[in-house]
Amino acid sequence: MPDIFEFKFEELFNTPLPLVVQKRKTPYYQKIHLHNAVELVYIRHGAGWCAVNGTIHPMFTGDLYVIPVGATHEYYGDTGLSYANCLFDAAIFHADEMELFDFFNIRDGRDLPDKYTFGPDLQQKIASGFDELYEELNSTKPFHLQRSRSIFIDLLIFIVRHATLAPGIRASHAQKQLGRVLSYINDNLDKKLSLAALAELSGYAPDYFGKLFRREIGCAVAGYISKCRLERAAYELEHTAFTIDEIAVRTGFFDASYFIKVFKKHFDMTPLAFRSRLKRQG
Fold first, then answer.
1. CA quadruple 31, 148, 60, 25: dihedral sign
2. What CATH code is carried by the domain that includes residue 75?
């Protein structure tokens, strides 16, 4: 069982208003963690996967993830993924607004959907709501905290009113099994990962597992593993001092020449050129 890091909400917000809003581009992988607050994650652009309480979901533009207090959360983002997230707890609501808080948090044993997927007609309105909230919360204009709270409440009400148009996605057995597999892949990129071994971990026959993986994740198993290894290699080139040979081994390519060839094909430059460019930019 991997270590689970907990983000303390009270250490995250830096205004008197118990609300955190961020606009971010994803790292290659966000390890499993949890919060002592509710988190909403809205996918603005790109794709990847997201797991809530170990249940994996393909992540696409227009998805809104609802992560209740204490729920585990991890994700892998393809290059180009961008998202907005919002963390809050019950303290931001007035007494007559607690029903709104309850819609996004588990307090009565309900089985909440892990995510809602909004169509193109609603995506822009939700994205604009997050943008406006972010800008106001980070402004220095008079009464910006009061207006931020008002925008926040309006955004939640908009989401609740339109949730019936965005069917909630709950856990399935197949997604839970794939969640185990994806976590295993991320933890073992330095090892040989065969389709047969991963299928055995999932509990499915190899042929069916391969088809299920492509359907749920959007690419073949081998392609997904290669992409994860390349993203991990790019991360290590930027954040560590390991040599090219060492990174090739640490990311499961084993042979440096093959690693350089695959990396250049994907990033249109060699690993050494990639690292040199980052140093110049820094």
1. negative
2. 2.60.120.280
